Amino acid sequence: MASTQRRLRVSVVVKSALAPAWISALVERLDASQRYEVLAFLDTPLVEETRPTAYRLYERLDARIFAQRHDALAAVALPNLGPSDMAIAGECDVLLDFGWRSRDAFVDAPRYGVWMLSLTEQERCRIPPVFWEMYGGDLCLTTLEALLPGGDRRVLYTSLGRPNRTSLHRSRNAAYWKAQGAIARALDAVYDRGASYLQSRPRVEETPIRTERRTPSASTVARHAAKVSFGVVARRLRKITFREEWFVAIRTPGRHSLVDQEPESVDDFRPLGAPRGQHFADPFLFEEGGKTFLFFETYDERINRASIAYTRLDVNANTIGPALPALSRDHHVSYPFVFRHRGDIFMIPESLEHETVDLFRAVEFPSDWSFEGRLLDRICAVDATLLEEGSRLWLFVGVAEPGASVNDELHLYSASTLRGPWLPHPENPVVSDVRRARPAGRIFRHDGQIIRPSQDCSRGYGTAVVFNRIDVLTLSQYAETAIGRIEPTWSPGLLGTHTYNCSRHVEAVDGRRFAFRFPIRRPTAHARRRR
Q1: CA–CA separation, 510 vs 457, rounded Å?
Q2: In this predicted model, what pLDDT tens digit does every residue of 316-332 receive, in sequence order?
Q3: Candidates 2.120.10.10, 3.30.43.10, 1.10.10.60, 2.115.10.20; correct CATH number of 235-516?
Q4: pTM of structure
Q5: In angstroms, how far is CA 72 from the centroid of its own chain?
């Protein structure tokens, strides 16, 4: 884009002079860019909004109990607010309408439309955002819609996320931070591609309004609060008696792997024994010199941090010796994506705590690794997974705005060399769906297809693995189709499974289960004799 292009004029209409922090952050983000000229306007309500006292009390109590340090809904004063005037719609390029009016109020849409955000089906009907999704255990649909000149309506962004099962405030907090990033990316796309970007978006499909979803009554609020409270108490009591533990299990696949079909119950996966106070997860298999190595995360409860370990496997998928250290840092590292590139062996571990995606090279495989460089910096990224395809390198990463969930959105980057520069895909996020966005293992070929394992986090973190067939992978397009899944049924008592990897001779998965905090020890023969 030529540097002489004029800045886009963006008008932001808000409901109050004290705007939510996520809107203030968006305005600051746009102001800091050389691409936009931003003006904010104060709207006036068409009618006074009233909600039942019980609901307002619930909202306030929930916000107080579950306050967030990075609070999207904190009230922040916007400077230089002007009064709302519908004439401004024709005097800007984009109007971000976070005010009170319906889309019908804008007769003359700006050049690139009036953009409206919704966290529920009909937010303009005074339905409290996310409440009913949380009440019914549904996923939260975030939508950014543009009303274009002439009345054409386009969907600029949709995302499915999982509400927090305990707090309405926390659910909204994550959804609004996610939306802030989506709006900024959509504005960047308009700046780069103009009207062609808007015309490439799907048209809005009208859906019937769910008339039962209105402002909740006092009895509904009471039932919801009681349900949430009982759930919190039950989880606290369970935590006293049980602890969640992750473990890694391996097997030889035989005639059918888990990619071909998921058995209801599999009894031939053998768990790796972990020392007390440690958990194993994120298994990755790698073959070198005719030997098979298993790399995995080992989490130490004493220091509340994970490092990377490895062990050797024989031809029957039995371990040869104990787990040995491979990579340890001064921050949490996991998901040891080990790969070969141009004769060298590299690892990209997850470094979410460090807000980086780092590259390590094997100096003395498999136990000695040196830092080679930083692929991505200042980013909330998880589970980076590399694919070399079509003479180009592709990096699939779960990415989130600060304050949002890392389980909802998959971003794609590409480069011609391993050390970059890594260019973001213009369609990022290429997947925005908590049911299959976050990576879950190495991308592999199966029956001539490219398969990307991903996590289903719609029922909780790491509930199941989804296999996605990559249909389109170019510098301008990406498309995939979910074709199979691994439910946590391959071993009794599982709560979840969130990583799958395979080699020519071995399959590896991980699992999550409850374990007694105070295991009952059976008396030894010597003790029985003494009694």
Answers
A1: 15
A2: 889 998 999 999 999 99
A3: 2.115.10.20
A4: 0.92
A5: 17
